[in-house]
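Blackboard transcription, Thursday session:
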Amino acid sequence: MINTNTFTPVTSEIIAQLESIVGAANVSTARADLDLHAKDQGHHPARPGEVVVWPTEAQHVADILKMANEQRIPVTPWGVGTSLEGNPVPIFGGILLSFERMTDIIKVHADDFQVTVQPGIPYKDMNEQLKRYGLFFAPDPGANATIGGMLANNASGIRTVKYGACKDNVLRMQVALADGRLIHVGSRSIKQSAGYDLLHLFVGSEGTLGVITEATLRLMPIPALMSAVLAHFETVEAAVETVVAVRGSGLDPAALEFIDANHTIMLTEANNLDLLPKPTLFMEFHAAHEGALEMGLEMVREICEEFGAIKIRTTTDPAERKQLWYARHHSYETVIRKHPNHKFFLNDVAVPISAYPELISFIEQRRIEENITAYMLGHAGDGNIHVEFPYTDEAGLEKAKAINGEIVLKAIELGGTSTGEHGIGMGKIEYLLQEHGQAVDVMRALKQTLDPNGILNPGKVLSMAEHGLHELSMTTT
Amino acid sequence: MINTNTFTPVTSEIIAQLESIVGAANVSTARADLDLHAKDQGHHPARPGEVVVWPTEAQHVADILKMANEQRIPVTPWGVGTSLEGNPVPIFGGILLSFERMTDIIKVHADDFQVTVQPGIPYKDMNEQLKRYGLFFAPDPGANATIGGMLANNASGIRTVKYGACKDNVLRMQVALADGRLIHVGSRSIKQSAGYDLLHLFVGSEGTLGVITEATLRLMPIPALMSAVLAHFETVEAAVETVVAVRGSGLDPAALEFIDANHTIMLTEANNLDLLPKPTLFMEFHAAHEGALEMGLEMVREICEEFGAIKIRTTTDPAERKQLWYARHHSYETVIRKHPNHKFFLNDVAVPISAYPELISFIEQRRIEENITAYMLGHAGDGNIHVEFPYTDEAGLEKAKAINGEIVLKAIELGGTSTGEHGIGMGKIEYLLQEHGQAVDVMRALKQTLDPNGILNPGKVLSMAEHGLHELSMTTT
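(Written on the board underneath:)
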């Protein structure tokens, strides 16, 4: 167990040590800088660190951790703050370690379909630079997250149904450990059975076991041709059963998204779109030649009709495809814009695809029973759903949390997870034990082994209660 | 560090305890049973355990580990002994834990393309049973290995170039820990970002961190159509450059195999086949419809011709495909049959695909310089090569090991690995540090955390030297 119940405050002496590592220009205690790194895009309250540090190379990160570990100062890594569960919020204060100045592409291994980057590069910017190689990094969470943040969170997004999550698209990383060691994990060889898979241990660990300082990613060829499908259904059940059928058909959708009727109504109003006010599926298919694309569309159309689709639109034209997908791409922001004085609580459960209809029915039913405003938007092809609960006050947030709690337990009962892609952060710690049972003890043991002083992103993923750290620093802010 | 330097011998009292756990019919100290579980298919010498135990359920495994852990008895899990690096050889004696009586399919989740099985089921038997669902488990190491063994080793094989290794085709496992806890890791949800990825920590750990007692696998639809391509080249360079080009073309081969001229000569002699005595590529493509298959074959033919193929045969006919692939499927056994009084040392390096030509050239050059008999056979599409060295005496083995050492270092220098799919076992421990550097210390720390008494498959993956266990029991046999 962690053998202290308080962290050391950041003193001027510590600031001086940080400056000696990264240079004075890369250290700030200015209020504005602290506040800019105090909150992510989720509903969790802001909590500034005591100092923001911008390393510019991996060794800086290692040196900062070594120093922080020796002096028991919390270190919270920060990409660009697009996460949703408070994952990079420095809730115990200490050092906010921002990767905004480590944004280089180190090397493009074009023949290997790989790229090695610094962790602070936002993935959309990286993909823009990779276009001239005809390659792209497939995980696509929407917001322009950094590669380091995406890996730390095992982010995924719209195209995961075909290309996998971050964990499936990373080959090798450099990681700084709590005690200042810099190690490499994984291999640029796509096959490796040499020793323990440390790569996947750090991926998704949200900076609580080590800090990613470099990553080699697996890239995909930019697909030659894409098609889009938009299908409306009379009922949620029909839409969701279609998802299961498309997944079971042997077709290989590159995206398979669901939005509920409340969403389409709002999208139509807000964007003057030609959508029916019905549960809707958005699909995308990638192919190397026209014939395959056309044949796929025909099969999809048949499946949708079989499940009673009331309107189906398909296209292979790039401009029309973008137009069809406009609604999906703008759905979250439209919902936010339409509720100007609201905050949002967003959930992220996922289940095996065969259980998706039951999960969605459960959510619909509870929404109706509780007479609560909520929108459903999901990476249906992955069995993943996001329920968006707008709220204005503490009571509204508590209500959303309570219903989310029920949804999470239902998802776990169906063989699923509390979080498909947003991570545990500070918001889902309470469900970890229900989802993983005794395996949580193993997670704790690994945390203890790799970060005995508990300095790495404390308060995330695992409960700090047993370390005597609960609420302590939280209540002092 | 492990706090004992000897293990406890298996006494009659321990036998009685084992019998009380699994029943007397599932415990044996008969010479024949010990000898049947003393050696895998690799070159490592036989070493029997002191007792063979056949658990029939997960709780048996947990209870055996708890007892063994308390009394410091080594436990070595055994699938069916098809491994090549002594991975399941009980080199410190103790309990040989055989999974030959845990071979059930627990549940087919057909709609989810998943199956849950006991670890002792051989994958070919499982795939035979899954045929009626139109599904199969893609990793295909050749020999009829068990699922548990394949997962423990992160095995892969011929179709990994398209479908990935075992680590990419498993979703959830039940694992028995050294202290007798039974935990679940991973999720049947294909997306999960909840807590640390323990699943991949146990996959490939060769039974040294925990013992797999159940697994849920990801299945693929059996492809509707397959084609085969056989292409001969004048030089190794031309063949291998073609591999890189096919991989870079956006084509998606389901198999992409290389065999050298020495191999084809022998295969022709032994099997009366119509092969040119030249470096040869074997390819397979899977498609959902005829058009895609034909178009792919045309592209492959063009690429092969561009790189100077001297003969190309393609087919979409199943019988002809089998005939074309006959040589590849029988290559290893043909080599063995043609060297009746020899043993074989087999290597398993892998590199990023762009480095494959340099790796293969290096091997060719060293083979010629040393004037040694060696055959090359590789999963070229993965950058993986197996060099087969026949030998008859200790000097021959030492020579093979020495050249393999050079090849491993070359592979590591090229960004690759000492082992793409066979695992570290007892044979490649010496290269782990060169490949992983300081990360090996982290692996040791995890081993210490999960198996503090070092009872789990001792002498594999990590060196036991620092535990005072080197050679000790080995020399007493």
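Lecturer's comment: Chain B has four domains: 12-99+439-470, 105-221, 225-334, 339-436.
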